[in-house]
Amino acid sequence: MTEPRVELEHEFSLDIDYDPSRWLELPPRWDTEEWQDIDVWARSCAELFWRAYGRDPGESGISFLAGVLRRFAEAFAPEPFDTRVVLRMWEPTSMPLQLFTMVKPAQGDREETLRFLVGAEDPDAVEPPVVEPFRTELLGEGLRAFRYLRQDDAPEVIAALRYAWRDEEVGADVVLWTATDDTAQIIRASQDIEELAHKVSVAVWDLEPEDEASPDVQS
């Protein structure tokens, strides 16, 4: 789908009311104002997570988890202001699952755009994606799609789960997605992802220079 240029009247950001005992957010790339560097962030989060887990990490537990978190941050930490990334965390020795959320100005036909955002007609899908309506109180009626696909002729099959909404009140399209070659991981996280989808909303920053207020959550 070719997307026309849009003159923005607002800047959008996302509000996600996630449970910090299950989800860990990746800082924007790289947020040196809050963290000295990526290693300090990864080490600090690993220590806190092991402490909350309540078991002895042993000699290598903290270092192992810090290394995992560093690799995820290097691969997935967001750069644009309109994207946020959280990791579904389980045991400290298990691989997290990355979950992306993005907001952008709404444009084009609503149904066509939402189907595009969830990959409803993805030509790389191994079989037709399963697409169904999904409604939340904060974002209204949207779509959810699950599909299997192959990329770049790789032998592994990727499982992909996507949600998309159009917030008509503020004029924004929102998409939430994850993808992995570990299908069992998506199945394990599916209920938590669905719960998180109900807690995503759009915040709007007024671009008027005299307005110094914090963003208001509009939906």
CATH first level of the largest domain: Alpha Beta
The biggest sheet, with number of strands, parallel, antiparallel or mixed sense and barrel status, is: 7 strands, antiparallel
Shape descriptor reads globular
Strand content: 25-35%
Total DSSP helices: 4
**Structural category:** alpha+beta
What's the gyration radius in Å? Answer: 19 Å
CATH topology group of the largest domain: Protein Transport Mog1p, Chain A
CATH architecture of the largest domain: 3-Layer(aba) Sandwich
Instruction: Give the number of domains.
Output: 2
List the helices and strands and how they pair.
Layout: E1 10-16, E2 23-25, H1 38-53, H2 61-76, E3 83-88, E4 97-105, H3 110-117, E5 130-136, E6 140-149, E7 158-167, E8 172-180, H4 183-197, E9 200-206, E10 216-217
Antiparallel strand pairs: 1-9, 2-3, 3-4, 4-8, 5-6, 6-7, 7-8, 9-10
Helix pairs in contact: 1-2
